[in-house]
From TrEMBL:
Pfam families per the UniProt record, alphabetical: dCache_1, GGDEF
SUPFAM superfamilies with a match to the protein in the record: Nucleotide cyclase (SSF55073)
Protein name, as recorded: diguanylate cyclase
Alphabetical keyword list: Cell membrane, Membrane, Nucleotidyltransferase, Transferase, Transmembrane, Transmembrane helix
Recorded topology in the membrane: Multi-pass membrane protein
């Protein structure tokens, strides 16, 4: 039982701790997903602002040509728009050879050439007119790390005429991401869907330019088409296991991931779990030690009871042995059955020798069971003692013996008494007991009464053994009972 309670308690604690862990994890997942959604919208908005201006430049140049006046006009308009675009480093236009046509940043050196840049090569070979978000580069004009956003420029024949380039400060993203507290191992990343890292709140060992294209996170985005979600995994960049939330842009091929270290995020839960287990452990220990103490106490009590019972048994048998040795019945003080048999044998022999009559009187309390049932056994004992006292009073001669024959049956040996005398004694005893008026509701007489059987005869003549006399008295007693109780019957008229 104790074990079952203990195991149930442990199981409940485990379920509670596990539920708490899942709740804590779910909360972190929700937080990371919401954060990544907000940051994706922010990145989208920054890119859109720069994209809008770059499209304006592209259209204007393609429509109005690459003349000096037009270039000047485009430069002025771009500069004016740049004032409100705080995250944009600037706008630059290069020709089909990669030489600068205009830039809002500052006058580039004469050697400036962008023809070796990836975005330049891309637009050169690809007719795609859309926006290209390139891998981070270090600006050749300012030395700043930037994200290049580029558009192809066509000439009037649709041939490659150069590139419009908008550059975004990576540091601005980094600064913004670092204002969000995700713990010392937390990380926010702006990533191109091809795996190119664009901006990260923590600088990875590989610097700015690295790819996470093999990340399981990108796999579920690009292969399974999950646009927003969460994942718990070990980062490829620093081997830290994190809870990631991510959201992709519907407008641009980018996504933002927000992540907290699982170890740090789950620390409060771990502390709670530790406390819960400690509490459970203490309660269990108290419970177990109480159960053990109770078990010991019960064992002690059980052993004590067994010892008492054994003592009681040996005392009872010792008393019984003493009683037999004393030849006296402990309750009534009359001779016991053993002594009765001896005395009867002795009386039988002596009266036989003298040719005298021997009478045996057997007395039985009427409805004694009902008496016990109604008044209780101790009252029954008391009543038996009173009946025995009456019996003793009527054993007037020294040879007369009074005895307890067994249970509620008493006996009287009257050596030398003939039937009539014995009957008279028996009747006197019956009358005296009735006169005691010991109430017995269970009897039709309303009082405790006796039925008495008397047997008489000359031993060796009328009977051969004491047992014959006892049997005759018993039969007479049976007749008295049958005749209605509270009466005396003798062996002569009993059959
Ligand atoms: N209190 C007490 N009762 C005893 C003692 N010895 C025997 N008895 C009870 O005496 C009753 C005898 O019941 P029965 O043999 O049915 O006889 P009865 O109820 O007297 O009915 P009849 O003899 O037919 O009138 C039993 O309930 C015994 O328990 C004793 O020493 N003390």
């Amino acid at each position: 039982m104790t074990l079952v309670v203990g195991v149930a308690f442990l199981l409940l604690t485990y379920l509670q701790v596990d539920w708490d862990r899942r709740e804590a994890l779910r909360q972190h997942i929700d937080d990371m997903q919401n954060l990544s959604t907000a940051l994706t919208r922010q990145a989208e908005s920054t890119i859109r602002d720069a994209h809008t201006v770059a499209i304006g430049i592209q259209r204007k140049l393609e429509m109005s040509g690459y003349g000096a006046e037009n270039l000047h006009e485009v430069l002025e308009v771009s500069r004016a728009q740049l004032v409100t675009l705080r995250d944009v480093e600037g706008f630059t236009v290069v020709d089909a050879e990669g030489r600068p046509l205009l830039t809002t940043i500052q006058e580039p050196s004469a050697a400036y050439n962008a023809s070796d840049r990836d975005y330049f090569t891309f637009h050169h070979v690809t007719k795609n007119h859309g926006l290209l978000i390139g891998a981070p580069i270090q600006s050749r004009i300012t030395g700043q790390w930037v994200i290049p956003l580029s558009l192809r420029l066509n000439d009037a024949n649709g041939e490659f005429a150069g590139v419009v380039l908008a550059t975004l400060y990576i540091q601005r993203f980094v600064d913004f991401y670092q204002t969000i507290d995700l713990g010392s191992e937390g990380v926010i990343g702006l990533v191109n869907r091809d795996g190119t890292n664009l901006a990260r709140s923590r600088l990875a060992d590989q610097g700015y330019a690295f790819s996470v294209s093999r990340s399981p996170l990108l796999r579920i985005v690009n292969e399974d088409g999950v646009m927003r979600g969460s994942i718990v995994l070990k980062a490829m960049t620093d081997d830290v296991r994190r809870i990631y939330g991510f959201d992709t842009s519907a407008e641009y091929p980018i996504l933002v991931t927000a992540a907290v270290s699982e170890e740090q995020a789950m620390q409060p839960w771990r502390n709670r779990a530790l406390q819960t287990w400690a509490l459970t452990g203490s309660v269990l220990m108290i419970f177990m030690s109480m159960a053990w103490m109770m078990w010991r106490a019960l064992g002690r009590q059980g052993r004590m009871e067994a010892r008492l019972q054994a003592m009681h048994r040996s005392l009872t048998s010792a008393n019984h042995a003493l009683e037999i040795m004393a030849g006296e019945d402990a309750l009534t003080g009359l001779a016991n059955r053993r002594r009765l048999d001896e005395m009867l044998q002795a009386a039988f022999s002596s009266t036989a020798a003298q040719g005298q009559s021997l009478s045996f009187v057997l007395l039985d309390v009427d409805y004694f069971k009902r008496f016990n049932d109604q008044y209780g056994h101790p009252a029954g004992d008391e009543a038996l003692k009173q009946v025995a006292a009456v019996l003793k009073r009527h054993a007037k001669r020294s040879a007369d013996t009074t005895a307890r024959y067994g249970g509620e049956e008493l006996a009287l040996i009257l050596p030398g008494a003939e039937r009539a005398a014995a009957m008279a004694v028996a009747e006197a005893i019956r009358a005296d007991v009735e006169a005691l008026a010991i109430a017995n509701q269970g009897s039709p007489y309303g009082a405790l009464t006796l039925s008495i059987g008397v047997a008489s005869g000359i031993p060796g003549h009328d009977m051969q053994a004491p047992a014959d006399l006892v049997t005759a008295a018993d039969i007479a007693l049976y007749a008295a009972k049958g005749a209605g109780r509270n009466r005396v019957a003798c062996d002569e008229n009993s059959d």
